[in-house]
Design a protein that fits this description.
heterodimer, A: mainly beta, seven-stranded mixed β-sheet, B: 114 residues
Chain lengths: 115, 114
Amino acid sequence: NAGVTQTPKFRILKIGQSMTLQCTQDMNHNYMYWYRQDPGMGLKLIYYSVGAGITDKGEVPNGYNVSRSTTEDFPLRLELAAPSQTSVYFCASSYSSGGARYEQYFGPGTRLTVT
Amino acid sequence: KQEVTQIPAALSVPEGENLVLNCSFTDSAIYNLQWFRQDPGKGLTSLLLIQSSQREQTSGRLNASLDKSSGRSTLYIAASQPGDSATYLCAVRLRVGGSEKLVFGKGTKLTVNP
């Protein structure tokens, strides 16, 4: 049981390049999330998904795209990278059913620098 | 708009001390509150989850309480150890429009000195 895994751990991009951050969970969670964490700013929600085929925007979605074709995978796509996207990106997952909502589990993060 | 505040932003204590970390939130219509630990350069590790109907949860030396009506939660750490040094974040889960989200505080950075 690996939990939430993310690749890559580190990446340096040039302005205007594109990349995909990978996220996989093996806990059969229906909810998955992408956050960014900037120093002194806390965590901000980028996108989330309540199940395969369903995604929705969070607080800071501009410049990003997501897809959820399977329960396990939730990749985050950066198109035309900008210096403002330099951040640490965390993927998370949780399970909700009926009125019950359970813990969110986080991946180890991807540290992205755009220069 | 829900705001989550953690005070103090940093705390330094000697080993063995019992300590309390505070978390306050402005909107009491939450589903649950979760405490996390984050080590430098690492992801978030879930410590405790308190559902909105609960008053407290315990795990080992950790005890978290929730008072929804006053918008407060505390994380009590007993007999602190240097290995407890980390940033502690609280987050509340609530409904915003047609979706649910976690709103995070900015964390309390704890240093436990040997």
